[in-house]
Amino acid sequence: MERLQKVIAQAGIASRRKAEKLIEDGRVQVNDKTVVELGTKVRPGKDKVTVDGVPLDREAPVYYLFYKPRKVLSAANDDRGRTTVVDYFPEVKERIFPVGRLDYETSGLMILTNDGEFANELMHPKNRVPKTYIAKVKGKPSPQQLKQLERGIELEDGKTAPAKVKFKTGDKKKDTSIIEVVMHEGKNRQVRRMFEAIDHEIVKLKREQYAFLTLDGLNAGESRPLKPIEVQQLRESAVTKPSKKS
């Protein structure tokens, strides 16, 4: 017997967290009866599980690296008809979804998969998978302000974790700066809100690296399958490391 949300995630329908939301919303049926209790357990392969009336069939796992353009939604679908990252994979038959999010105006590296457990491993904040962003901001942040960002800065939903922040270059005529930020958190619009908190609005934002993966060889809107060794290395990079005692 396994928890229903785990079975849904392993089937590639959604991450475990989103599977829990599907259950709570009454969109999951077990043996033709709607289930809304998160503690429900089922017998994989024996109990009939459907999501929105569609039988749950385990798919072979697939993994893609994608260069998300600006003005594309980080979602599998959108009820307002906006272009989503999944729209760039019309030939993929599996029910893939993005691992985490990049906001609508942000471009850069994303991973898409139908492997819910894999997605959970990468997104769990304790696993500290590093992500590298390049931000073009208005003005020139002072060294003290950059140190603020590195140490962690108070936002409305709590203090950010320590990050690596590096001034790359500046344009005096346009009064802009290019800043590199390496962080492992993924709060909503976090990088943008961090710079807003020090009064330097982001003009352009791009995620250039996810763990060891880069966008080398890809243009905006293009993708490639991840190699098995890359999937393995991502899993290894997401293993929680015990904190060192002082």
TrEMBL record:
GO terms for cellular component: cytosol. GO terms for molecular function: RNA binding; rRNA pseudouridine synthase activity. The keyword Oxidoreductase does not apply. CDD domains: PseudoU_synth_RsuA_like, S4. It comes from the Bacteria. GO terms for biological process: enzyme-directed rRNA pseudouridine synthesis. Residues 2-66 form the RNA-binding S4 domain. The keyword RNA-binding applies. It is an enzyme of class 5 (isomerase). It holds the Pfam family PseudoU_synth_2. Keywords: Isomerase, RNA-binding. Its EC number is 5.4.99.-. InterPro entries: PsdUridine_s_RsuA/RluB/E/F_cat, PsdUridine_synth_cat_dom_sf, PsdUridine_synth_RsuA/RluA, PsdUridine_synth_RsuA/RluB/E/F, PsdUridine_synth_RsuA/RluB_CS, RsuA_PseudoU_synthase, S4_RNA-bd, S4_RNA-bd_sf. Residues 220-246 are annotated as: Disordered. Transmembrane segments: none annotated. Belongs to the pseudouridine synthase RsuA family. PANTHER family: PSEUDOURIDINE SYNTHASE FAMILY PROTEIN-RELATED (PTHR47683), RNA-BINDING S4 DOMAIN-CONTAINING PROTEIN (PTHR47683:SF2). This is Pseudouridine synthase. It comes from Salsuginibacillus halophilus. The lineage of its organism: Bacteria, Bacillati, Bacillota, Bacilli, Bacillales.
